[in-house]
Amino acid sequence: MCRFLAYCGSPILIDTLLVAPRSSLIAQARAAREAPTPVNGDGCGIGWYGERPEPGLYRNVLPAWGDANLASLCHQVRSRLFFAHVRAATSGEVAGVNCHPFASGHHLFMHNGQIGGYQLLRRRIDALIPDALYPERKGTTDSEAIFLAALGQGLREDAPAAMERTLGAIWGEMARMGATEPLRFAAAHSDGKRLFAYRWASDGHPPSLYWRVIDEGFVVASEPCGEMLEAWNMVPSGTVLTIEASGAARLAPFTVERPAAKAGQAAA
Amino acid sequence: MCRFLAYCGSPILIDTLLVAPRSSLIAQARAAREAPTPVNGDGCGIGWYGERPEPGLYRNVLPAWGDANLASLCHQVRSRLFFAHVRAATSGEVAGVNCHPFASGHHLFMHNGQIGGYQLLRRRIDALIPDALYPERKGTTDSEAIFLAALGQGLREDAPAAMERTLGAIWGEMARMGATEPLRFAAAHSDGKRLFAYRWASDGHPPSLYWRVIDEGFVVASEPCGEMLEAWNMVPSGTVLTIEASGAARLAPFTVERPAAKAGQAAA
Amino acid sequence: MCRFLAYCGSPILIDTLLVAPRSSLIAQARAAREAPTPVNGDGCGIGWYGERPEPGLYRNVLPAWGDANLASLCHQVRSRLFFAHVRAATSGEVAGVNCHPFASGHHLFMHNGQIGGYQLLRRRIDALIPDALYPERKGTTDSEAIFLAALGQGLREDAPAAMERTLGAIWGEMARMGATEPLRFAAAHSDGKRLFAYRWASDGHPPSLYWRVIDEGFVVASEPCGEMLEAWNMVPSGTVLTIEASGAARLAPFTVERPAAKAGQAAA
Amino acid sequence: MCRFLAYCGSPILIDTLLVAPRSSLIAQARAAREAPTPVNGDGCGIGWYGERPEPGLYRNVLPAWGDANLASLCHQVRSRLFFAHVRAATSGEVAGVNCHPFASGHHLFMHNGQIGGYQLLRRRIDALIPDALYPERKGTTDSEAIFLAALGQGLREDAPAAMERTLGAIWGEMARMGATEPLRFAAAHSDGKRLFAYRWASDGHPPSLYWRVIDEGFVVASEPCGEMLEAWNMVPSGTVLTIEASGAARLAPFTVERPAAKAGQAAA
After folding, report:
1. Any idea where the Glutamine amidotransferase type-2 domain is (chains A, B, C, D) (predicted)?
2. Measured by CB atoms within 10 angstroms of the end CB, which terminus of chain D is less buried, N or C?
3. Which pLDDT value is given to residue D268?
4. Would residue B2 show up in a list of annotated catalytic residues for this protein?
5. What 8-state DSSP symbol labels residue C64?
């Protein structure tokens, strides 16, 4: 389980949210409160949108609390839309290529959760990535595979629908292979304009995910940070939160089709 | 293109071969003579057999010449069979998981060469790795994929035959996808007892590979190093050199079936 | 505060003590029980004596729990005398050169503790290192400075006396500069034959340090690990434990002269 | 010997100068033409001024050509004044803390050259750094020591004069210790507004240093890069080039007092 934070709004210096607040993401790396693994020391990363259509990306294997480059970057970079992530490795080695966020073209993605039985399913999950996107597979995490598979399912056009289809396909593979652990998914995705935050799990117990409004815009995070902890709202299970570039936000149902039908096909 | 060295014989300290000689592998990392890329600074690694049936493994992204851990290890470790590799990245990011050698159970593998058109072929090459071995896929190089696919083809039982079948299957995928660049392969493999050194290319121009006898045993290397450069023999193209634990060595033809028949199938 | 372990006895594989036991050092890296900072994720290292008079050294900035090279080394290397350390940075950046243990010639050293007011005292502490040893100063920790200063004070001849003099000189500098925090020192040192374990603090509250006998020899550690927690003995405050190559062990007083006299000199 | 580049002018994206040009600094890292060591693979770094008075800093031990974070940063960050450096280690381990540029408060510094006999002089050079600045000593290079010593000599007030005094003091220590190798100094320094570029050596053979005007401002570099190689001017030996925030540039003599008198003092 990892911890992450995403911001969308007026441009702010990244350390405003990431370093300064009490119980900031960087503090959570050493002592998360709402995670099964309190230490998230297996790498960290930030992605941000600036002048270019594609995001900037910094990822490193060091724990966030000891990474001088990360601290300097957060202190310097002002952005209207950024992601930050601290990792507790569940699948994939401790390696820069396995750190979040992941970028492809204009798109940015990060994830907290897991594909149940991933080690046995890996080749089948990889097979959900189209040939044209496969060269972008740099690491071996389930998270990067979900992102690339979702791009293949139309993430650029209709993000929530593509994500529903992708998780449906993965759940299907899990069912076919008899995976006993659930598919759990708290994630953030951006096309450089909108921010999508997802919370869903095949067993109804997704990782925690919160959002709140601050003066400058919206923050989404694995767990509350900063002063006013009561100002945070939980993203309900089975929900996608969409924040438009205009600042409009809406919650909508996020529904993944149970792979029963597919199991039936397999039985046929 | 990378540079590598393998040793098999009486136990010796690794730095005897790797650090001390004139034009040693570590010197070659900075200035190789027989390679298209003279600088091999994209990571390094050693694998060695000691008391355990499985080899020890040290791999790092730093250039070999600046890696204090590598120097200390080579200075301390005595081994009867070891591999060393300096990398110039052709496929796969600069990452520890993409450094050679690769280990699986008792087996050790390293490679210099390339799969032509690998970026487009990657998913198909990955599909040659059996499900049971896929969890061992830690990185994204063509080299690691060849190794795991060969394990699936029976590398543990009849190594040269399994390697011929593996390269045949890969050549077949290349033909099906219309790859225009060749498949080139200079590699070393060990099961912990025997050392196999391969030199072959689909276009008849494999990377260089040499061997020589020293007092203590056999050395195989991408290019000659040490004092007596004339003592080195080239491994002929289309040949596998096998060195038995007993010290017996033999050269045998290494033949990969041209994918013409398969192309015919595809045409049918 | 860091965690460490040292072993001296019949040669054993390092992972016997470091990885396998319940609450092993590597487990302590993520969740120490007797340390002010439960996470020791700012690097790790091992030093070991083999065939060479000088020790082998492996140090890295990654947390011990995610370091594949460390795991492989511990799995392969058999040693009669080894040190292992996981770091929680108090002075000095997160960098390989600041990881313990430190080596100089035949000597190995690691430390848990601190020099009170070190940031203001650094130049004066560095000045305690003789010119001839200064080139070996690779990093910026107080621990490495103590080691090099002690070598200058005769650590090679009479280790405990040299260490007493060194800590006395440091305490003197602290007094001269008006440092308000204490000097705390739990440390291990070896000349390749004997193992010295020190526990002392200027305020009488040194970091914890334990020792026990196992079948193969002696273990010294920051906190008990393994099964029989009751088999561990605390090294008393103000004591040095010496383990001879013969297996003989003795506890002796370790007394550092209070810098009152020196303060008087300064006042004069 | 290292390679570096500094820019001062209208804000531009860093990769305009660092990545895109033929024979760019990143290409020079692998194959410098005017350096004794053609490979500069022992780390890299950039420093840049943005909205904050203090510069941003990114430094890493990887060779510049394989560092994905560096590439992304250079692609995203727009700056009116930035430094970039690729290192070939002469003094100090391969470590992030030994990579250039170095920052202190608003000031940024990078260096190509050496203090002759530095390994024997290190403690004396360190002693030139005032206590108040010593906590900023993060690594062990001669370059960082020159920078901190120069801050102690008044670099913030009159940069060229402070640098002359600092090099004079170092030359004096070299003379006292009988160093036989020269003091060579090509360096860039900024206070966030002005850019100073120095070229001087005790033996009259300083490392190469060039400058040119481009549409947007001034570039200073160890060796010419980009298309119009004839547009580059060499900074004469014994000269400091100052570029004001206004865009005014001037060359002035840079004279370091020969330590003969001091040697006489020592003899007296």
Report:
1. 2-246
2. C
3. 32
4. yes
5. G
